[in-house]
Amino acid sequence: MSSSISFSHRHKDFEITLSEDGALELYLDGCLRKKRERGTKEPQYVWTNVELEWEEHHYIEARYWASIDDLQITVNGTPLLKSSFKN
Questions:
Q1: Which residues in 10-83 belong to E strands, given as ranges?
Q2: pLDDT tens per residue, range 62-75
Q3: Which residue range is the domain that position 18 belongs to?
Q4: Domain tally for the chain?
């Protein structure tokens, strides 16, 4: 069973999903933007660059350490959310 965490940033809806096979996925407004298969290296990392109002760019990053179930999400390098998938 896959797990997901949803959040909003500046009127955009994001979702980070951990699939049954361990792939980390980043969705923006319901569209898959990045996917990273589970591998031997940690953290798994997905990102997207989003242009919001008037060429204002926001770099959304998600890093996931499966060994300790730690998900960290940043916007332009500033922490936004810290969570886990196995609450």
A1: 12-18, 24-28, 31-36, 44-51, 57-65, 70-75, 78-83
A2: 999 999 999 999 99
A3: 3-83
A4: 1
